[in-house]
Amino acid sequence: MTTKKIVITVGAATMAAGTETVTLDAPAYINAENYTMLPLRAIAEAFNATVNWDDATKTVTILSGQRIISMTIGSKTMYINGTPVAMNTAPEITSSRTFVPVRDLANSLGISNINWTEASGTVTLN
Question: pTM (2 decimals)?
Answer without folding.
Answer: 0.90
